Amino acid sequence: MRALAQTSYGGPEVIREMDLPIPEVTGHDLRVRVHAVGINPVDVKVRTNWGGFGDLQPGDPVITGWDVAGVVDAVGPLADGRFKPGDPVFFAGSVARAGSHREYTLVDSRMVGRKPSNLTFAEAAALPLTSLTVWEGMFDNAGIPLDATGGRQRIALVVGGAGGVGSIAIQILKKVAGMHVIATASREASRLHCLGLGADDVISHAEPIAPQLTAIGVAALDAVLHCSEPDDNIEEIMPLMAPFGKIVCILPVNKPMETGSLFARSVSLVYELMFTKGLFLKDLARQGEILDKISSLVEAGTLRTTLQEQFPWTVEGLRSAHARIDGRQGLGKAVLSVIPD
Q1: What's the gap between Cα 218 and its chain centre?
Q2: CB distance 113 to 322 below 8 Å
Q3: Are strands 268-271 and 241-249 parallel, antiparallel or unpaired?
Q4: The predicted structure's pLDDT at residue 147
Q5: DSSP letter string over 188-230?
Q6: Which helix (H) or strand (E) holds 44?
Q7: What value does the CA radius of gyration of the chain take, rounded to a whole number of Å?
Q8: Closest CA to 121 of 37, 218, 213
Q9: What is the dihedral of CA 22, 340, 64, 34, to 10 degrees?
Q10: Taking Cα atoms as reference points, which of 310, 309, 326, 319 lies closest to residue 17?
């Protein structure tokens, strides 16, 4: 089979096309014929071995790509029984395994959801990793209620609202959790993108946040999903939290900081790494459950794809998609399409 892979770490130029064996399906796995693969910052982390991410993958060559839509080709003897050959599926999988920039890929069946029937493969491939990040981080880890019944409407701030995670977070927090959603954006195109996804307000993360909240009549935040480098402004955000508020970060806080402002109000700082379940083999079936729920919400019209740009399944296409992530200027998600829909 054809694969887009690498045998060294570095810039996009390390990616090249290779001819590799089709993987054998065993255990809990499904073998999936790949149709489209979403591009995420984790691809760059693995490509460059940032934080040892590339070393997590066993063997050589290294293959990136952890946002997949495709069709089940074969089923392992211990698979959970939800899927059979021919079923369209989507998933993110595990960064500790080879990625999916190849014609056939393997994934633990418990981590797989059924592809939304009203989306193309490219549209579906934009959703798994980011949707799981938001759902796990905000609902499972932080315990934010899934409904808006009773009392005042809760207020959420999405820092970095125009990116891949932010684009689906605006939709989920607004349309599923019923929250008043404030997004941050630093460019006019980003601001319009966030408003188009349903954000109630958009402020700039390049300017002081507190006076901007005051200007739109917001006294305190119930929840924050921080989708960018928290070192930039988390200390500014902490005093703005309401009692029992939740701050969810999808990247680590690396600098020393004073957290005393969280104590009196019992504010929680929570981390979310979507790959934790796969890395530690914990509660894998929960990801399949979440993805099936996302699929139903998409089919009901509650959520929509965050696909913004498609690249061809070529070495040049994947290099260009990685460069898009490197530049941090893209809106929503980019996808590499393997087979035209």
Answers
A1: 28
A2: no
A3: parallel
A4: 76
A5: HHHHHHHHHTT-SEEE-TTS-HHHHHHHTT---EEEEEE-S-G
A6: helix 41-48
A7: 20
A8: 37
A9: -40
A10: 319
Out of 131-135, 289-293, 323-327, which region has the weakest mean confidence (pLDDT)?
Answer: 323-327
Helix, coil or strand: residue 73: strand
pLDDT tens readout for residues 236-295: 999 999 999 999 999 999 999 888 889 999 999 999 999 999 999 999 999 999 999 999
Domain end position, chosen among 245, 271, 297: 271
- Domain span at 158: 131-271
- Do residues 315 and 250 both lie within one domain? no
Name residues whose C-beta falls within 8 Å of residue 76's C-beta, 6 or more positions apart in sequence. Answer: 25, 26, 27, 28, 29, 30, 31, 109
Give the whole-angstrom CA distance, residue 181 versus residue 337. Answer: 32
How many Cβ atoms sit within 10 Å of the Cβ of residue 245? Answer: 26
Instruction: Say if residue 259 is in the same domain as residue 290.
Output: no
Mean pLDDT of 59-74: 95
94 vs 108: CA distance, rounded Å: 9
Helix (H, G, I), strand (E, B) or coil at 69: strand
Rounded to whole angstroms, the Cα distance separating 40 from 318 reads 12
What pLDDT is recorded for position 150? 65
Concatenated DSSP letters for 125-193?
HTSHHHHHHHIIIIIIIS---SS--SSSPPEEEEETTTSHHHHHHHHIIIIIS--EEEEE-SSHHHHHH
Name the domain boundary from 271, 297, 325: 271
Higher-scoring residue by pLDDT: 166, 59: 166
